[in-house]
Amino acid sequence: MSEAQGKTNRLIEKGRLLFAQGWVFIRGVPAMKFLPPEGPLEIAFAGRSNVGKSSLINAIIGQKGLARTSNTPGRTQELNYFVPDGHSGENGDLPPLAIVDMPGYGFAEAPKEQVDAWTRLVFDYLRGRTTLKRVYVLIDARHGVKKNDAEVLDLLDRAAVSYQIVLTKIDKIKAAGVPRLMEETAQAIKKRAAAYPQILATSSEKGAGLDELRAAVALLLEE
């Protein structure tokens, strides 16, 4: 086995163990003043409404129904925090990682003032959270990077927040098209300052790419 393959296998196993701990929802944050104290590293999941964000979180954790899924765009209206179970949060007994499920963007059904409030919350969080390690920006494989996705990437670049593109629902396109889509997406973000170059391709329904996503998170914890 090559050294590179050995490292990959180690990270996959580390990621598997991290997400197999049993995770719990700790709080929904409707405004910055309700954020939990900064402690463990945080990773956030962002994406258009109906991109499959909650489904992907449930899939990597292996717990159906932990992150709420809905056919109604915009249902996730808060920053929802999840951590591995079994940590008190006191006296240094902190979890190794927190997952933040961010409100979806790009929906049209909600009133404008509500959309504006959610947008401000997200932007303030991105700019002001020092423990935020990376944002995983989910892109529907059937549609690629759309205009409002690009606007979010612009914001992340300006805020200097590291982000990585995760393609979702790759089972909904022809298998032969996945490598081409990954390459096109990689080229599209090549000159973006805060973009992590590796593109991940996933399917919550089929389980594709979940090991690689968990391994990417495990690698973050070592950096």
Task: Describe the overall structure.
- Helices cover 36% and strands 19% of the residues.
- It is of the alpha/beta class and 223 residues long.
- It has a seven-stranded mixed beta sheet with strand order 1-3-4-2-5-6-7, sandwiched between helices.
- Strand 5, helix 4 (147-159) and strand 6 (163-168) form a beta-alpha-beta unit.
- The longest helix is centred in the N-terminal third of the chain and has 17 residues, at 3-19.
- The two termini are 24 Å apart.
Structural shape: globular
The main β sheet shows up as:
7 strands, mixed
Number of strands: 7
Mean pLDDT: 89
Low-confidence stretches: none
As a whole number of angstroms, the C-alpha radius of gyration is 17 Å
Order of helices and strands: HEEHEEHEHEHEH
Number of helices: 6
Main sheet strand line-up: 1-3-4-2-5-6-7
N→C terminal distance: 24 Å
Helix content: 25-40%
Report the structural category: alpha/beta
Strand content: 15-25%
